[in-house]
Amino acid sequence: MGTLSRRNVLTGGAVAAATALGVTACADGTARSTSGDGRVGQSSAPQAGTPSSTPTTTGGTLIGDGSTSDTGPQPRQPAAERLEPGQRPPQFVVFSWDGAGEDSKQLFSHFRSVAAETKATMTFFLSGIYTLPESKKDLYLPPGHKPGASDIGYLKDAHIRATLQQVGAAWLEGHEIGTHFNGHFCSQTSGVGTWTSAQWRSEIEQAVSFVTHWRTNTGFTDLPELPFDYTKELIGGRTPCLMGRDALLPTAKSLGWKYDASSPGGNQVWPVMRGGLWEFPLQSIPFPGHSFSVLSMDYNMLANQSAGSINGNPAQRPTWQQQSYEAYMAGFNRAYTTNRAPYFVGNHFESWNGGIYMKSVEQALREIAAKPDVRLVSFRQLVQWLEAQDPAVLTKLRTLGVGQKPASWAQYT
Predict the structure, then answer these.
(1) For residues 208 and 230, what is the distance between their CA atoms, to the nearest angstrom?
(2) Integer CA distances (angstroms), 340 to 132, 319, 375, 403, 413, in order
(3) pLDDT tens digits, residue range 265-314?
(4) DSSP classification of residue 285
(5) DSSP state of 47
(6) Quick check: 270 and 214 in contact, CB under 8 A?
(7) DSSP E strand boundaries for 99-190
(8) 391, 371, 370, 388: which is closest to 79 by C-alpha?
(9) Which pLDDT value is given to residue 55?
(10) Which residue, 360, 358, 304, 305, is CA-closest to 331?
């Protein structure tokens, strides 16, 4: 792929997700292998409870067992305005978070606060099993694996509560809640890269089921319902380890999804559609001090700095933090000063190498937010803007190469 000279991004993604929330990679300590009968996991949705048994606290119409509710259109959404002739496009930047959950590090709530301060909107890719108690893990029927199997750990009950609170508050603030699916299987022989479209459908249906039936599964009665209908709000996700997209796309399209954010090593050019969905890749960005590029994600920087170790040499961490910050900014500036292609940054809520990547991405986010003509948006909002444009204009914008600055925007818009 060329973006990582020493570490494979797909293997890296598996480690990234397993450690993102400080939990063990295998919740039950068992080996992860494809079942002999090739069983496809079926939807584990429990029987819906009686919505009227739990009073609504959001003022919306309760759905199913009262875990979610329809409160109408999402608040704080910008109008999607069409470019005027000759107008330079705004610089769109999407910060997204894989496996978003709230644990003792409280990074979900922290970056919500950062977003409020910088007037940013983000995409949070929620792992469905982060709303499922470990005591109920056998409700999860992962394709090709035994019930309850997962290559990321289940959250403690207290952290499930905190995650549910963060998800609801984030949506009300205008952020997008996408999906990072469930068990994060990255094995070359039995991982998500081997799944069929039918198996992806099962995985998605289960992720939705866990989010929409958390009240039944957790027994929590003192938390407000989530203020959205997830079956309507879910329009995209990012696959574990950036694997399995070819089989996923037909299923995602049939479910009405609008985009996929799983492509690795994309160039900084204007987005195209693939399989009927917008393709929003992790992008290859300059890596200061090296002749090769790095993907616009925390783990991929770590892989080239500390050889994949999340506890690298403490003496090197200040240098690595500065280098990762400069990489984020180099990717931004290359687009901002030239073709204005949307810029995508994907990260995890983690504390690798002493938390340097959380510090560097926040520093970059705050600096980017202060620039004129920048829009910090979610993938959902970017989709809405792209679909509001004249298709002929988007076709012209796609002819601008990486780092290509037009002599006049009138030629393109």
Answers:
(1) 7
(2) 41, 29, 11, 9, 12
(3) 899 999 999 999 999 999 999 999 999 999 999 999 999 999 999 999 99
(4) E
(5) P
(6) no
(7) 123-126, 176-179
(8) 388
(9) 60
(10) 360
For residue 206, is it within any domain? yes
* pLDDT of 172 higher than 70: yes
Q: pTM to 2 decimals?
A: 0.88
DSSP letters spanning 384-401 = HHHHHS-HHHHHHHTTS-
Query: In this structure, is residue 52 part of a structural domain?
Result: no
Q: How far apart are CA 208 and CA 294, in angstroms?
A: 32
Phi and psi at 229, nearest 5°, equal -90, 105
- CA dihedral (288, 289, 290, 293) in degrees, to 10, reads -10
- For residues 100 and 179, give the distance between their C-alpha atoms in angstroms, rounded to a whole number: 9
Higher pLDDT, 219 or 43: 219
Structure tokens at 227: 């203020």
Task: State which residues form the domain around 15.
Answer: 9-25+62-69+87-411
Per-residue DSSP letter, 78:
-
- Is 12 within 8 Å of 295 (Cβ atoms)? no
Instruction: List CB contacts of 343: < 8 A, sequence separation 6 or more.
Output: 91, 92, 93, 94, 268, 283, 296, 331, 332, 335, 336
Give the rounded distance of the alpha carbon of 228 from its chain centre: 18
When pLDDT is averaged across residues 157-186 and rounded to a whole number, the result is 98
Q: Are 23 and 154 in contact (CB under 8 A)?
A: yes
Which residue is it, tokens 């207290």? 158
Mean pLDDT over 225-237 rounds to 98
- Residue 297 DSSP SS3: strand
- Cα dist from 181 to 202, 260, 345, whole Å: 10, 12, 19
Q: How many Cβ atoms sit within 10 Å of the Cβ of residue 8?
A: 14
Mean pLDDT within 148-169? 98
Q: 390 in a domain, yes or no?
A: yes
CATH code for the domain of 243: 3.20.20.370
The C-alpha angle 15, 347, 318, rounded to 5 degrees, equals: 90
Please state the domain count of the chain: 1
Domain annotation covers residue 209: yes
